[in-house]
User: What shape does this take?
Amino acid sequence: MYLTEQEAQERYDARLPIAVWGVDESGEDVLIDVWEDASTTTRTQAIQQAGDLMDSMLYNGVKSSPTQPHAFPRNGDSDMPEEALKACFELTLALMREKLIHDNAESWQARATYFNASRVESLIADARESLSMREQDVVSAASSPYLKRWLKGRFRSVDYA
Assistant: This one.
């Protein structure tokens, strides 16, 4: 993994929190912090998934060692670039946020059904489908600002300056 949970915690403590609206076990609306309210298992899975997604991207250059497990470091560097660590962390948070939104869409849909709000139920179902199709957008938006000097192909961000 690019980051340990402890390293990710230190990064989270140094930034503004990210929260989404959700529904707790009693059916009350609550604000859920994507990192602080997540289990250790969820955090670790998200960090691993973010690293796997980063490793699946196309980069310019080559791994510094053909036996290293990840795409970074690259091109003979021996240290992990800070940009790769930032990208992994931001991608981790983006994946966790999208999962919370997706998971809570079910609760909102159940509420809409209970109150016979078919239009709201339809909108929530559409939003859920849209979220599931956004993974590539999330990956690109969360990680490409940090990885742009290495990225090639469809994830490469265009600089118009």
The longest strand covers residues 19-23.
